[in-house]
Design a protein that fits this description.
The complex is a heterotrimer of chains A (about 290), B (about 450) and C (about 300). Chain A has about 290 residues and is mainly alpha-helical. Chain A contains 15 helices and no strands. Chain B is α/β, with parallel strands linked by helices. Helices cover about 45% and strands about 15% of the residues of chain B. In chain B, strands 2-1-3-13-6 form a five-stranded mixed sheet. The longest helix of chain B has 18 residues. The radius of gyration of chain B is 26 Å and the shape is globular. Chain B starts with a helix and ends with a strand. Chain C is built from 14 helices and two strands; from the N terminus they run ααββαααααααααααα. In chain C, strands 1-2 form a two-stranded antiparallel sheet. In chain C, α2 crosses α14 and α6 crosses α8. The longest helix of chain C is centred in the first third of the chain and has 34 residues. The chains are: A mainly alpha (about 290), B alpha/beta (about 450), C mainly alpha (about 300). At the A-C interface, α1, α2, α4, α5 and α6 of A face α1, α2, α4, α5 and α6 of C.
Chain lengths: ~290, ~450, ~300
């Protein structure tokens, strides 16, 4: 029940409704404009990108050519990038969410020796961002001969301290101690209580961390940029930036401005679609995580 | 009660061991380099960014069917060299062969990353090459890189804009300045050129080269550094005057803005290298065919000294398991007359072979981009006027980075570019000493 | 439920006691934590005590790199940029996110869920792609924003000039993360029990007063958490300036932010040891700032 129902008839309310909807609509235009630009840019040829108005289509519809170039350039490397991105992000996100959940559960529901110290460490780690460690980690993995491997991109991403932080807060509230005690009374073991009883209840929190970790990974640029130097292994972010740089590095490379935009379009469409389809999860999940934290 | 709970049996629901084993196997999944045995086809990994390098690689593979070339594009220029240094640092991931511009050869030699192709027969083709291009990548009989194309400078200009405004290609830099002032006054919004010296260190190098500045002289572990020489300051003062008078634009080069400006007629001239149309023809539809080439302006009338910008070589790396094949490839790319000819007519790469530079047929080739002007003649003349004494530092990229950082700041309004050189000089000297060089 | 769970339990499996269980749950995370956070930290510190030169090789230099970093204007200028960026970007982003969340929560507007979803969508676009898109849009002469402004008869600001570039980068962050924060606030607001609302309506409070005086204070803890995450995010700035550099060369140099500086030192300057010292110090700066904010915020709340 909201106040809307109670006051909807007043003139002031109607004015406000127009005004505020107008404000949000303006912000919507701002949000939408760059996305619309990607769409128009993806349908143009390079010369047209420069000589026609950016926010509308050029007479010469070039989308199919761009798509063809995108998927055939360097033996179809873009498809590999898409596969790599899916591979790195899904494994990292699943692992990060799972391990965060285990750890969060331990912090929330047990008292044990070293708990305070370990949680302080995790909290501290939330504040030391991974990017500050990327260069040292690169140098370290170089010594071990592990750069240029999927491992170098995935393993560091499995550590997701904010996830532990959020899961601890979430589990504190979502799972009552009585429930766990009841499970113990029934003779269930600790791992069994977790997997058969607790996990279902902490699903919303788990989903939150899963989404956060997935986006963090799909978004990641610095880590793979530094860790990988085989184009076959790049994720989309590093690959597209590399493609873009052939045009701007001042050394007579291939100009792929519109192909880069086509690649951007092709790669964000599935993720946006997934977000739209899974609305229920992230709207509930993110909220839950945020509120409880 | 608690005790009873503690004693409860439990299932260990998920396979922790399996998971750990999976995690440990991850690095193996990533693929280790495949060992090739003698009878196998050898695969060479090549990093190159010049458009359609694959065409020439195809020609090579036809001639040497047991060598397979795999080309990867790491972005060209800085991103390409960043990745090379990354691979050297990491000790893994270096290609067999990489495209390498003349100005980067000393840097990678200093890292001891470049293989000597001399023992594999590279010297057999030595005499075919224009002397200074060969000398840039070799040291006596040691051959660290084999030239592929050169970048003699010229004046690339818009015929239509020149004609409409009564301009002719400037013979000297003084004339150039006059024309710039005139055009800015006659036709506001159109510039004779866009000064990219603060964003494009390679281009700036070509200008320093022409005016006679010699920022570096290397002799083993001794290095002479003179970035803030009078000649360098003269050059920057010349441009500073035009920038301050708003007679030239200062949009950073190689941006979408700059490409658009060239095509839309915002800029009438680009003082550039022979290979420049390789990028121009990809982005310019309106102005295609309207461009012409003329000799670059001279500092002293009658005394024709030009310079070189870019131009590439191929280098092989010490880590390569196939140095003989790598040498074969680099030699072919640089010296096969048929391939070199195609590259010139199709992609504007200017030859480094004596024979081709003197080939009347090739030099007379008409280019559509240039309204069928036989521009090779212009660039051949320029190539013959290049003063080959210019040297690059063994840390050229870093020096360039410091230099452009400082000049860009000055262009942004903080002091003059010439004054900025003093700070760059200090910073680079400190850096060189820090890296163990003796600065003399 | 527990009964059924119990029955489903197979026999003869590993028994985990209550004392061992927490360590078992923590093990995977803590092991990875040690391997990819603690060890690199120690490693960074270790190599930061050495120096590798092109001529002369590696030698131990003790605290030299730190002494150098402490007096290196390039590092501190970068830290300065981070602070400016954070002060510019976070308040605007958090402010708009709060206002929009309150508007959506109040139910005054049409098409609530449409706005909610569409504002969140940019969160799905990676920073690399967002930066590429915006850098096309920012072009002063040929970018669509400039073109539109000109056709309407006025000049848009030069987004990539020294004066505007930080705001332009902040705008990219605003575009990407505003919706994400808004969703969090919205959910927090929705979770506030409705009986409070009814009470206030009875009291005759206006919708506006109700939103700002009663609802807003209730989600302060949520706001603090999002601010901390925003601070941490802002201070890592790398991708946006790295990719937009060539358009704004006069202001974005190769040490524009500390992360950028470390990258340049490692892959252009051949000074990985010094880069490690810079990374180590940056980690320290970020930890101190976010910790200080938490302390400050908590003290305010306690009062």
């Amino acid at each position: 029940m909201s106040i809307v129902g109670k006051t909807a008839t007043s003139g002031k309310f109607r004015r406000n409704r127009w005004l505020l909807t107008g404000v949000l609509s303006l912000y919507f235009l701002y949000t939408f404009m760059p996305l619309f630009y990607v769409i128009t840019a993806a349908t143009k040829s390079n010369p047209d990108l420069f000589s026609t108005f950016g926010l509308w289509f050029a007479p010469d519809f070039n989308l199919w050519d761009n798509l063809h170039t995108l998927f055939t350039i360097q033996d179809g490397i873009f498809l590999k990038w898409m596969g790599n991105t899916a591979y790195y992000s899904s494994i990292s996100a699943a692992g990060a969410a799972l391990f965060s959940t285990f750890a969060g559960y331990a912090f929330a529901k047990y008292s044990f020796f070293g708990k305070k110290l370990m949680f302080a460490l995790v909290l501290g780690a939330v504040m030391i961002p991974q990017t500050a460690l990327v260069i040292p980690m690169f140098l370290m993995l170089s010594k071990l001969g592990l750069t240029n491997t999927a491992f170098a991109v995935i393993a560091p991403s499995l550590v997701f301290p904010p996830g532990v932080f959020l899961m601890r807060a979430y589990i504190d509230d979502a799972i009552s101690n009585e429930l766990i005690e009841a499970g113990r009374m029934d003779g269930a073991g600790e791992v069994h209580i977790f997997s058969a009883i607790a996990f279902r209840l902490l699903m919303p929190g788990f989903t939150t961390v899963l989404i956060l970790a997935f986006v963090a990974n799909w978004n990641n640029y610095f880590l793979p940029l530094v860790m990988l130097n085989k184009p076959d292994m790049f994720p989309i972010t590093v690959g597209l930036a590399q493609m873009y740089s052939t045009a701007i590095s001042g050394t007579g490379g291939v100009l792929l401005f519109t192909v880069v935009m086509t690649g951007a379009l092709v790669s964000i469409v599935p993720v946006i679609a997934a977000f739209l389809i899974m609305q229920r999860f992230w709207q509930g999940g993110l909220g839950a995580g945020g509120v409880k934290a | 009660m608690a005790d009873r709970k503690n004693a409860s049996p439990v299932t260990f629901g998920f396979g922790r061991r399996d998971f750990l084993r999976g995690a440990a196997a991850l690095p193996l999944l990533a693929g280790l380099p495949k060992m090739a045995s003698a009878e196998d086809t050898v695969e060479l990994l090549v990093w190159a960014w010049t458009p359609d390098t694959a065409v020439q690689a195809e020609m090579f593979m036809k001639k040497f069917p047991n060598i397979k070339i795999k080309i990867e594009n790491q972005g060209g220029g800085k991103p390409h060299y960043d990745k090379l240094r990354n691979a050297i640092q990491a000790g893994s991931g270096l290609p067999d062969v990489a495209q390498m511009e003349f100005n980067s050869i000393p840097s990678f030699r200093a890292l001891q990353a470049l293989a000597d192709m001399g023992p594999y027969g590279a010297n057999d083709v030595k005499d075919k090459f224009i002397d200074w291009t060969w000398a840039a990548g070799s040291d006596g009989d040691a051959v660290y890189s084999i030239p592929w194309d050169s970048g003699p400078m010229g004046s690339i200009y818009r015929d239509d804009i020149y004609a409409a405004n009564g301009l002719t290609p400037a013979k000297t830099w003084d004339e150039f300045a006059e024309s710039a002032m005139k055009l800015a006054k006659d036709k506001p919004g159109t510039y004779l050129t866009n000064f990219v010296g603060a964003s494009d260190a390679g281009w700036l190098g070509s200008q320093l080269w022409q005016i006679g500045a010699r920022p570096f002289h290397v002799n083993g572990e001794e290095i002479h550094i003179e970035i803030n020489s009078q000649k360098a300051k003269d050059l920057l003062n010349y441009w500073q005057k035009l920038v301050d008078a708003k007679a030239v634009d200062t949009t950073p080069g190689w941006t979408t803005e700059w490409f658009a400006g060239m095509d839309e007629g915002k800029y009438a001239t680009w003082i550039a290298a022979a290979w420049s149309p390789i990028v121009m023809q990809q982005s310019m539809k309106k102005s295609f065919g309207l461009w012409r080439a003329a000799p670059m302006p001279m500092w002293e009338a009658g005394k024709n000294v030009t310079s070189n910008w870019g131009g590439s070589t191929f280098s092989a790396f010490t880590t390569s398991q196939h140095l003989a094949e790598a040498t074969q490839f680099a030699v072919f790319m640089g010296s096969d007359p048929e391939a070199a000819r195609l590259w010139n007519t199709k992609q504007f790469l200017f030859p480094v072979l004596k024979e081709l530079a003197a080939d009347a047929d090739l030099m007379g080739n008409a280019f559509e981009f240039y309204g069928n002007q036989p521009v090779n003649q212009v660039f051949a003349e320029s190539l013959s006027q290049v003063d080959p004494t210019f040297e690059f530092a063994p840390f050229q990229d870093y020096a360039d980075q410091i230099l452009t950082d400082a000049l860009a700041k000055a262009i942004g309004g903080a002091g003059t570019m010439a004054d900025a050189l003093d700070g760059v000089q200090d910073a680079v000297v400190t850096y060189a000493q820090d890296q163990g060089f003796t600065v003399v | 439920m527990t009964e059924r769970a119990l029955r489903a339990q197979p026999r003869n499996r590993v028994i985990v006691s209550k004392t061992v269980a927490p360590y078992l749950f923590l093990a995977p995370f803590m092991l990875l934590f040690a391997a990819f956070l603690i060890v690199p930290l120690i490693y960074a510190f270790d190599i930061s005590l050495y120096k590798k030169a092109m001529v002369g090789g590696v030698k131990f230099v003790g605290a030299d790199n730190y002494v150098k970093a402490f007096t290196d204007p390039k590092f501190w200028e970068g830290v300065g940029v981070l602070f400016k960026f954070a002060f510019l970007q976070i308040p605007v982003m958090i402010g708009t996110a709060l206002v929009f969340a309150l508007i959506l929560d109040s139910g005054v507007v049409w098409a609530k869920s449409f706005f909610r979803v569409s504002f969140f969508i940019p969160y799905a676009v990676p920073a690399v792609i967002a930066t590429l898109i915006w850098s096309y849009l920012y072009g002063p002469a040929y970018g669509p924003i400039g073109q539109t402004a000109r056709s309407l008869g006025f000049e848009a600001p030069d987004f990539v000039s020294a004066k505007w570039i930080l705001a332009s980068i902040a705008n990219i962050a605003q575009w990407e993360y505003m919706g994400y924060n808004m969703i969090i606030y919205f959910a927090a607001l929705q979770a506030i029990p409705t009986d409070l609302e009814e009470a206030s309506v009875v009291d005759g409070a206006s919708a506006f007063a109700y939103a700002t005086r009663i609802k807003l204070p209730m989600i302060v803890p949520t706001i603090i958490v999002t601010v901390v995450f925003s601070i941490i995010g802002s201070l890592q700035l790398f991708t946006e300036p790295f990719l937009i550099q060539n358009m704004a060369r006069s202001i974005i140099n190769s040490n524009y932010t500390p992360n950028y500086y470390a990258y340049t030192l490692t892959f252009v300057g051949q000074q990985p040891n010094y880069a490690a010292a810079i990374s180590f110090l940056l980690g320290g700066v970020i930890a101190i700032v976010s910790y200080a904010f938490m302390l400050l915020a908590n003290r305010r709340i306690d009062r």
